[in-house]
Specification:
Elements lengths: L6 H4 L3 H14 L18 H5 L6 H26 L15 H59 L10 H14 L8
Helix pairs in contact: 5-6
Length: 188
């Protein structure tokens, strides 16, 4: 027969509780530093913005972009050198050249793939938004039921002859409040 877990076994160590309390205080803007920002505010100063490099999209994409650019220029230079071309290196090639005619099929395939990729991205973005909206609704319902549970527990908790909670009831309410508290700061 399985042994039932008591309230003491369900709680976490004090250092984890302290870290959780500090995190929740910061997110909920209470505690010793209520003015500490969660997200660093944007400064509309170009010098400040250009000094921010780490973690940006530019930092993560400049190498592949330069690589693709150099690959394209190398391809055009090789074609211009090896083929009998009648146009300048920087000019638009003639449509009746044999190589250009062969590359037209690649251009048509690229157009089809671009349309397909656009459709897939649009469809899955729409589906992801619907999923997010449903999840948001479910989270709000859970928050409401947890609020109901807290109200029921507070109303019907065991009290002594003075009307105060008994130590056992206070411990139960504290554990439930601590475990329900993270649900209170989910954005609407």
């Amino acid at each position: 027969m399985a042994k039932r877990r008591g309230l003491r076994e369900a709680t976490s160590p004090p250092e984890v509780d302290a870290e959780l309390e500090m995190l929740l205080d910061r997110v909920m803007r209470i505690g010793p530093n209520p003015k500490l920002p969660i997200i660093i505010p944007y400064k509309p100063d170009p010098a400040w913005l250009w000094m921010r490099w780490r973690g940006t999209v530019l930092q993560s994409t400049w190498r592949p972009t330069v690589y693709i650019l150099l690959l394209g220029v190398s391809f055009v230079a090789a074609i211009h050198r090896d083929q009998n071309t009648t146009w300048r290196f920087t000019a638009v090639p003639s449509h009746d050249h044999a190589l250009v005619v062969q590359l037209k099929a690649l251009e048509a395939m690229w157009g089809y793939m671009l349309s397909f990729a656009t459709f897939v991205i649009s469809f899955f973005t729409s589906q992801a938004y619907g999923f997010w909206l449903a999840t948001k609704g479910n989270v709000r319902k859970i928050q409401g039921r947890l609020n109901d549970l807290g109200m029921l527990l507070a109303t019907h908790a065991e009290r002594d002859e003075n009307g105060c909670y008994t130590p056992r009831a206070r411990e139960l309410l504290d554990v439930v409040a601590r475990q329900v508290r993270p649900w209170t700061f989910f954005p609407t």
